[in-house]
Amino acid sequence: MDCKKFVEEQIAEIKQTVGSATAINALSGGVDSSLVTVLGHRALGEQLKTVFIDNALMREGEPQRVVKTFADMGIPVELVEAQEEFLSALAGLTDPEQKRQAITDTFYAKVFGRLVRESGAKFLLHGTILTDIEETVAGIKRQHNILAQLGIDTKDAYGYSVLEPLKTLRKDGVREVCEFLKLPAEISKRIPFPGPALATRIVGEVTRERLATVRAATAIVEEELGDSDAFQYLAVLLNDRATGIRDNKREFGQIIVVRCIESTDARIATVTELPWYKLQHICERIISEIKGVNRCLYDLTPKPPATIEYI
Ligand code: XMP
User: Fold this and answer.
1) What DSSP state is assigned to residue 97?
2) CA dihedral 118, 122, 124, 130 (to 10 degrees)
């Protein structure tokens, strides 16, 4: 791919479309939204307002870490507190698509709607990539950031137009452009993390308590597999329980699944052959460090038929 040409074309197009209006974008810290933020700021400077929405679904310390990474590059990011709005929208929901829908609605209609009204932005810059579009259109999964491709007129529905500068790229292309732009490794090499965040790794209801459990497991898995070179690694909380023994007492405990995969673009994936001692060590930490968890499983399923995330 000709990265130079891609960057120049996208910057020119963003400039031309937005003109003298203002635009807004939500940064999740993932490689896609990070690249959009950088392209958007190069094109629009202060005409672009970048927000990080704290939706309660993020990993340990993530909001502060992301804001700092961008501050170090001279890009201001506003942290927007919206934990209660997301958690109350998710309360009681167990169906994967309903959960995704609740996150989409809370994000675009409620929280974003309010930010757009307050900022007067006419455009939203968005990190949609080609794989998101293909899978959504094929009906495999409703990626939370796909709107136009599903026939949703954002101008009508939410009051702003959406620009998607990455919609012709796949994940590997996004990383190539990040490297071309010399973005810090914590952005260009960052493992994929989905927009609906830890909610995609909780089967069943998303609550503060269940989020704390999967967040703790995620921190352990990321710490232990950070040097694995795998495409993606994650922890999932199942909506099931299993009997165990702790402190000589019966415990009907929670179950964490560890997933670690190899892929180039997330369309297909194989399972990483992690060394046994590594798996044992991760298991040991998860069952001893996280309250209420007494089983840890390693997922051996490739994509397809499984997806990478669990909802
Ligand atoms: P699946 O689970 O569909 O994941 O096999 C493929 C890749 O996409 C990420 N993913 C998402 N990314 N919004 C995103 O921005 C989403 O709704 C979403 N769902 C999954 C996932 O982490 C994997 O890398």
Assistant:
1) H
2) 160
Ranges of the chain with pLDDT below 70: 140-153, 158
Look up residue 35 and give its DSSP letter.
Answer: H
Residue 6: which residues within 8 A CB-CB, separation 6 or more?
Answer: 169, 177
Q: Is 38 in the pocket of ligand 1 (CB under 6 A)?
A: no
Q: Is the Cβ–Cβ distance between 124 and 23 less than 8 Å? A: yes
How far does residue 276's CA lie from ligand 1's centre (Å)? 27
196 residue type, one letter: P
- Ligand 1 atom having least distance to the Cα of 309: 2
User: Cα(21) to centroid of ligand 1, in Å?
Assistant: 32
Nearest CA to ligand 1 atom 10: 194
Q: What type of residue is 124? A: L
> Relative to the CA of 303, which ligand 1 atom is closest?
5
- pLDDT for 135 equals 77
> Can you tell me which atom of ligand 1 is nearest the CA of 200?
19
Asked if residue 266 has its Cβ within 6 Å of ligand 1, the reply is yes
Distance of CA 36 to the CA centre of its chain: 14
The closest of 49, 63, 57 to 112, measured between CA atoms, is: 49
DSSP state of 46: G
Ligand 1 centre from 4 Cα, in Å? Answer: 27
Q: What angle do CA 293, 65, 97 make, to 5 degrees?
A: 55
The whole-number pLDDT of residue 166 equals 97
Kindly tell me the number of DSSP H helices and DSSP E strands found in the chain: 12, 9
Q: Report the pLDDT value the prediction gives residue 125, as an integer from 0 to 100.
A: 94
Query: How far is C-alpha 85 from the geometric centre of its chain's CA atoms?
Result: 18
- The amino acid present at 102, given as its one-letter code, is A
Q: With CA atoms as reference, report the closest residue to 111 among 136, 87, 147.
A: 87
Q: What are phi and psi of 67, to 5 degrees?
A: -60, -40
Q: So what's the pLDDT on residue 137?
A: 73
Residue 170: other Cβ atoms inside 10 A: 18
SS3 state of residue 272: coil
Residues in the chain: 311
